[in-house]
Automatic annotation (TrEMBL):
Gene3D superfamilies referenced in this protein's UniProt entry, alphabetically: 3.30.1180.10, 3.40.50.10170
Protein name as annotated: DegV family protein
Coiled-coil stretches: 206-233
GO molecular function terms attached to this record: lipid binding
This protein's UniProt keywords: Coiled coil, Lipid-binding
Top-rank taxon: Bacteria
Pfam families on file: DegV
Amino acid sequence: MSKEKIAVVTDSTAYIPAELIEKYQIHVVPLSVIIDGVSYKEEVELQTADFYKKIKETDSFPTSSQPAPGDFISLFHSLKEEGYNKVISVHLTSGISGTYQNAVSAGASVDGIDVIGVDSGLACMAQGTLAITAAKMAMEGKTTKEILNHIEMMKNSMDAYFMVDDLNNLQRGGRLTGAQAIIGSLLQIKPILHFQDKQIVLFEKVRTQKKALKRIEEILEKAVQNNEAEEAYVIHGNAPEKGQQWLEELQKQFPTVEFHLSYFGPVIGTHLGEGTLGLTWSVK
């Protein structure tokens, strides 16, 4: 039986730092964000900081689009030429995007390389952590089966919660009705969202940002007690100082957890808006 040579592919909504993409040889297919009728591949043609600037200068609401199957087909062909015979392709939750489905269909149409799609059921560094782990394990010579089993175990213990600062994006993106958004801003409601059955859904409505973050900390505390949180990412929507401050507070409260700072890039930022803070955690 031929020895497996495994490549790991993900999409840009994992928001993995460039140095880790390089270190673990992860292949990234970008999604696009459309502003004023112009489509930009996120992190390729439009960097995150420029995205948040651009949306302040436009009256139209940005939208996002998934990679075309052709983008995946050409990547899988080039991986095959480099001698890879297996691909583990880890993607944004299928509940909010067709990216995973496009990767799977593209994989089925390329002969000579076996593409296994992984629907993360998540986004951002929650998805990124799965891709990084898969790539690390592939480098260590683990088999496809061992990697997939481990990722499945991680998915079961992973969680991600977001505190949305401005309800307008959720409302305009069709995630909340107009009335709910208006009432929310009048009453200073900060919705806490999380992933459930692959969708982003309301977890709780909390008054004030401080209370919302405190509530997320309570959920993390339970996960730490259950040994389900060894590594965590604070994720911010163009609010690095706020993110860093929260990270430092969390690090003091939970010294056994390794915290890192991450961000919501253009595609996810389109839906959640500026000022959003999120927290995701997993076992190592």
